[in-house]
Design goal:
Blueprint lengths: L9 H31 L5 H30 L1 E4 L5 H17 L5 E5 L6 E4 L7 E5 L9 H16 L2 H29 L8 H48 L2 H16 L3 H7 L17 H7 L5 H16 L1
Parallel strand pairs: 2-4
Antiparallel strand pairs: 1-2, 3-4
Length: 320
């Protein structure tokens, strides 16, 4: 974690570490099963694994180094200076105070025109980070304390290097998916030619293809759920760190309640457009396509009740 004054949460850190360990275990088990299946049926596995890892590494490195540009482009946000209008000046003032309080480098500041009140921060490290707020968040619906709580939450993601954590976690799923696809198309267009290329081997190739697809689906599902779990831990850690830094968990709780309520009233078509950025957002844009239990299971964020409960506990701790 970055050397800042953002408070660590050892319990959440331990759970995040365990989740990353389980992701690694799933990945290693998948690789072993895949290589065994390919070798057992005479399908060359070396080239498939090599190219899958190479392409997956390329995609992951690109995401790691250009996450800020990708997110800003997707949100149609513009980087602004402190002299670029009242909104920009206000955000820069809050960011300056929080950076001094947290003893961390100042991120770039961006503003996105959007009807959805929200904010996000991304970037591979503190010196390359960017904080983005939407115009709807800055239209006066939050008071200064609440807005500071939101921005403190987002800056804690930078301090805790969450972009790096989630990029590494996603890498495992990318590799698994690529290996399944490469093996599938290799068998489909390679004709199963290994060990003589006879009909029995062709039949074995079809069997291994089906088994690999089944294994791939299971691995993808497990990886997806673990990554979502990790993301929810990450949000809880950011809530806690931001609340402790400002010393005002009630302000963050109030901001969460207001923002979540306003998002619920946004038209479905606008929410669907915003959903690709949910992993970055302060509060998720949910279009309501699933039930509450499924939404909690698949969501990148904890439920509002869970976040408010944690902030209430922090308030009690600070009042003692």
């Amino acid at each position: 974690m970055a050397k800042t004054r953002y408070a660590p949460d050892r319990g959440l850190t331990a759970r995040m570490t365990l989740t990353m360990f389980l992701l690694g275990l799933v990945f290693v088990a998948f690789i072993i099963i895949l290589i065994y299946l390919l070798s057992a049926f005479g399908v060359g596995s070396g080239a498939i694994v090599f190219f899958a890892v190479l392409l997956g590494a390329g995609l992951t490195i690109g995401s790691f180094f250009y996450s800020d540009k990708i997110a800003l482009s997707a949100a149609r946000a513009v980087v602004v200076g402190p002299d670029d209008g009242p909104m920009a000046a206000k955000v820069h003032g809050i960011v300056d105070r929080l950076c001094a309080l947290a003893d961390m480098p100042k991120p770039r500041v961006a503003i996105a025109r959007s009807p959805m009140p929200n904010a996000f921060a991304t970037g591979r490290n503190a010196s390359k980070a960017v904080l983005c707020v939407t115009t709807s968040l800055m239209d006066g619906r939050l008071d200064d304390r609440e807005l500071e709580g939101v921005i403190a939450h987002e800056m804690s993601h930078v301090a805790h290097k969450d972009v790096a954590v989630m990029t590494i976690a996603s890498f495992l799923g990318i590799i698994a998916g690529l290996l399944v696809r490469f093996a599938f198309y290799g068998e489909l267009f390679g004709g199963g030619g290994g060990r003589g290329g006879n009909n029995n081997n062709n039949g074995g190739g079809a069997i291994v293809m089906l088994v690999m697809l089944a294994v791939g689906i299971v691995v993808y599902a497990v990886s997806f759920l673990l990554i979502r779990l990790l993301s929810r831990y990450r949000e809880l850690a950011a809530d806690r760190a931001g609340a402790l830094l400002t010393g005002q968990p009630s302000a963050l709780a109030s901001a969460l309640t207001k923002v979540s309520g306003d998002i619920a009233r946004i038209p479905q078509k606008d929410l669907r457009k915003a959903e690709p950025l949910n992993a970055f957002y302060f509060a998720p844009a949910l279009s309501g396509r699933t039930g509450a239990s499924l939404a909690n299971l698949f969501s990148t964020h904890p439920s509002l009740d869970r976040r408010l409960r944690q902030l209430s506990e922090i308030s009690e701790q600070l009042s003692r």
